[in-house]
Design brief:
Blueprint lengths: L4 H22 L4 H4 L4 H5 L5 H4 L7 H22 L1 H22 L8 H17 L6 H23 L5 H17 L4 H7 L2
Helix pairs in contact: 1-5, 5-6, 5-7, 6-7, 6-9, 7-8, 7-9
């Protein structure tokens, strides 16, 4: 985690937001009032919801799964490609996921998963672009990332109340960003032959 300070900061932010969310809910405030991504409100000009919804979660399990995914992908992304690129990819992908959600989903949505899928898509694109130069370890990492993406999209498509539009929108944005990124030295020491 010492090589991933932004990942650590984002983890603290989503956990702190969950604490505020629990406090708000005990006061009778629902997720929409707290800043959930909700189509009617966003189209009425409350664009901040595209961002605030990335820090809210639908329960402890939702938070735990997203925190685990952020820890795994954020640490890898940040150590390979840098903190600034990780942060930019996270927020651009998260907002893209929120936009996809209001376009294709009727229900309010919350969660960091659109941004996390953006990190996943970014890593996949980054490695695919360098496929020929990858070491066996790098190819294994790429295969695992693709498998993780496929499994999660399948779970999202087959489970009610999971906002697969946000996942796919975030992943697509991250993929496009990943095609543009250049590596740092720490990436070469692990992934290239």
């Amino acid at each position: 985690m010492s090589r991933a300070p932004v990942t650590k900061l984002l983890l603290v932010a989503i956990v702190a937001a969950f604490g505020l969310q629990i406090w708000g809910e005990t006061s009778g405030t629902d997720l929409v009032a707290l800043g959930a991504n909700e189509r009617t409100s966003v189209l009425a000009g409350q664009y901040w919801r595209l961002l605030t919804s990335m820090f809210l979660h639908g329960g402890f399990l939702h938070l735990a799964l997203n925190a685990w995914g952020l820890y795994q992908l954020g640490t890898l992304f940040e150590s390979w490609l840098g903190s600034t690129r990780m942060l930019a990819t996270y927020f651009v992908s998260g907002i893209a996921g929120s936009v996809a959600s209001i376009v294709w989903t009727q229900m309010p949505s919350v969660g960091a998963s659109g941004a996390i899928f953006g990190l996943l898509g970014g890593l996949i694109a980054f490695l695919l672009k360098r496929h020929e130069a990858l070491s066996p370890q790098g190819k294994s990492i790429l295969s695992q990332l693709v498998m993780w993406a496929v499994i999660n999209v399948f779970i999202g498509a087959s489970t009610p109340r999971i906002d697969n539009a946000a996942h796919l929108g975030g992943c697509a944005a991250g993929f496009l960003i990943g095609l543009l990124l250049r590596e740092r030295g720490s990436y070469r020491s692990v992934a290239e032959a």
